[in-house]
Recover the amino acids of this structure.
């Protein structure tokens, strides 16, 4: 009779003692992943030790432990990529995995050691680390406008914007073959070409004007001499 009572008490403790819950955390390769875990801290006496392990929570401690804390600071750390960045004094013992890799996928155990028999708080997390998404979108160079009518195939017309350099009067002969961006630009280029073509003869033969001036001076001088002789 006594053995049955003891067995019943042990089963009751096992079933109602430690609490176990499971969560799923999904992240991408190269990112920092935070696996949450908290416990209640009512006073400084409630601060306790805990551990993280790479497997489901066993009956005691952590299997394949990766980090330990006494509630005040980290006492054991398997790798610098595993860190506790939360406020330990307030019960935030969340695990941060830096620069996550696909090999980090798996089950993680958060075990908070609560004083007493079978009082530990147990949380199993399933961490899934996926490859980063790669964008396949290519940059668009042209802006297309699609027009379609009933019974006709779809056609695409491309709108391209060009900026032409300004043309000065002295450079007009060399840039006469450049396309005009509008009717007003073509009119300005034509007027500059006409002005330039009219002024070319006087620039190419300046000596003709000099000879004509000398001849007129000589004729006037001859007329003055004849007038003096006659008087």
């Amino acid at each position: 009779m006594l053995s049955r009572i003891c067995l019943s008490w042990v089963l009751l403790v096992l079933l109602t003692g430690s609490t176990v819950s499971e969560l799923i955390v999904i992240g991408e390769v190269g990112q920092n992943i935070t696996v949450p875990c908290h416990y209640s801290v009512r006073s400084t006496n409630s601060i306790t030790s805990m551990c993280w392990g790479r497997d489901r929570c066993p009956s005691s401690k952590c299997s394949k432990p990766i980090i330990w804390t006494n509630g005040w600071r980290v006492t054991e750390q398997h790798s610098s990529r595993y860190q506790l960045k939360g406020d330990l004094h307030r019960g935030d013992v969340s695990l941060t995995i830096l620069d996550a890799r696909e090999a980090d996928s798996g089950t993680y155990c958060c075990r908070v050691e609560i004083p007493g028999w079978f009082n530990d708080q147990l949380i199993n997390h399933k961490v899934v680390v996926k490859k980063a998404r790669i964008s396949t979108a290519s940059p668009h160079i042209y802006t297309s406008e699609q027009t379609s009518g009933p019974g006709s195939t779809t056609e695409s017309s491309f709108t391209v914007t060009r900026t032409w350099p300004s043309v000065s009067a002295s450079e007009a002969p060399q840039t006469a073959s450049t396309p005009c961006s509008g009717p007003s630009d073509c009119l300005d280029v034509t007027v500059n070409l006409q002005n330039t073509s009219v002024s070319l003869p006087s620039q190419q033969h300046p000596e003709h004007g000099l000879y004509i001036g000398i001849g007129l001076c000589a004729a006037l001088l001859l007329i003055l001499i004849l007038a003096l002789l006659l008087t």
